[in-house]
Amino acid sequence: MQLTGNIVLVTGGGTGIGRGLAEAFHRLGNKVVIAGRRLELLKEVSQANPGIEYMSLDQGDAGDIRRFAIELKDHHPDVNVLVNNAGIQRVEDITSGGPGTAELTIAINLLGPIRLTAAVLHQLLGKPHAAILNVTSALAFMPTAPVPTYCASKAALHSYTQSLRFQLRDSAVQVIELIPPQVQTALQGQRGFEGMPLDEYISETMTLLETEPQADEIVVKRARGFRFAERDGAYDDIYPVYNEKMVAAAKRRP
To answer: Catalytic residues, which ones?
Structure first.
């Protein structure tokens, strides 16, 4: 991936990994546009980083994605990098309650990036150095029981990303999957889960993008154990121990 001279769109750019990536690309001299539902957070990022622009986007709403794509083409026709980062993570008790949380999670975490990619792909196909970066999770490869639909949505996005990459193999659009470990962001709330410091994750990710410009996946060191657990024959040993720990932590949450 070309790291400079881009016009980068980052969804979920108001907080967490999205904000970290947006600011990192901005520091490299790229023009950055962030998008999300909470305009006050987007405005805060823009004010802290003069030059970053922001747009409203409810990724869980198919109609709003269509509206957003039209406005994006009108105001930022030269966007050549799409970072599908926006997502939610909710604790679910599968044994009680309805599927509302699961449906919302799938709408935002899976249908959202699929719909947005489809809506802006025609813009990217005409650019010489285009890229789509899909942010999945190490939990796509080592699901944690308290957040089952989140893990399922990220596993599905991983699969979609592979197919997207293959279908675009003869185009100028590079498809990259970012696979973070658990990172210290507001996504996990106050559930007491340990995570990689956000600044460290962003720094290592940007270094990997620079040193491995043709990589299909960007996997920081802390995520490799989960990402490659099945390949390395470690999945059956890690899964029960890890999930007992996560269930215990979820029970202690406020």
So the answer is: 150
From CA 207, how far away is CA 213, in angstroms rounded? Answer: 10
Q: Are 88 and 108 in contact (CB under 8 A)?
A: yes
The whole-angstrom separation of Cα 76 and Cα 70 is 10
Output the six-digit token pair for 170. 């003869």
CATH architecture assignment, domain 7-251: 3-Layer(aba) Sandwich (3.40)
Query: CA torsion, points 90, 137, 105, 62, in degrees to nearest 10?
Result: 150
Beta bridge partners of 84: 134
pLDDT on residue 251? 73
Cβ pair 135, 178 in contact under 8 A: yes
pTM for this model (two decimals):
0.95
Report CA dihedral (114, 154, 11, 254) to the nearest 10 degrees: 140
Bridge partners, 7 (sequence order): 31
The pLDDT tens digits for 211-244 are 999 999 999 999 999 999 999 999 999 999 999 9
pLDDT, average across residues 153-167: 98
In the three-class reduction of DSSP (H, G, I as helix; E, B as strand; rest coil), residue 139 is classed as helix
pLDDT digit string, tens, across residues 38-62: 999 999 999 999 999 999 999 999 9
State the burial class of residue 62 (Cβ atoms within 10 Å of its Cβ: 0-12, 13-18, 19+): middle
Give, as one character, the DSSP assignment of residue 53: E
Strands (DSSP E) along the chain, which ranges? 7-11, 31-36, 53-56, 81-84, 130-135, 173-178, 217-218
Answer whether residue 254 shows pLDDT above 60: no
